Amino acid sequence: MNKLKFSKKSFVYVIILILVLYILFFDSASFYQTYKIKHKLASLQKDIDTLLQENERLKVENQKLEKDKATWEKKAREIGMKKEGEEIFIFKESDDL
User: Fold this and answer.
1) Whole-angstrom distance, CA of residue 16 vs CA of residue 8
2) In this structure, are residues 75 and 65 in contact, taking their beta carbons and an 8 Å threshold?
3) Are 57 and 49 in contact (CB under 8 A)?
4) Residues 45-79: pLDDT tens digits?
């Protein structure tokens, strides 16, 4: 049988290859981990932008509610509130149409 012999030189190349692969793919600062973190960061930034827009919309709506009684009453009625002495009639759409 032929025995497979490794020289010191080939052994060093194998060790270097293993270290390079570890650094590229498995280390906490690897290119793969960096890619994943950048992708997650972009996703979170998109979520932040969406929430900032929603926050701005709600600020404008809040200002309208504070200043305009008609807007306030409209929103109150949308959530089912009524003035004292009023009756609310709720009409359901028929399925027979």
Assistant:
1) 12
2) yes
3) no
4) 999 999 999 999 999 988 988 888 888 888 888 88
- Whether the Cβ atoms of residue 56 and residue 63 lie closer than 8 Å to each other: no
Secondary structure string (H, E, C) spanning the chain: CCCCCCCHHHHHHHHHHHHHHHHHHHCCCCHHHHHHHHHHHHHHHHHHHHHHHHHHHHHHHHHHHHHCHHHHHHHHHHCCCCCCCCCCCCCCCCCCC
CA 71 to chain centre: 32
Residue 50 — φ and ψ, nearest 5°? -60, -45
**Does the predicted TM-score (pTM) go above 0.70?**
no
For the chain, give every domain's residue range: 8-78
Structure tokens at 80: 């089912």
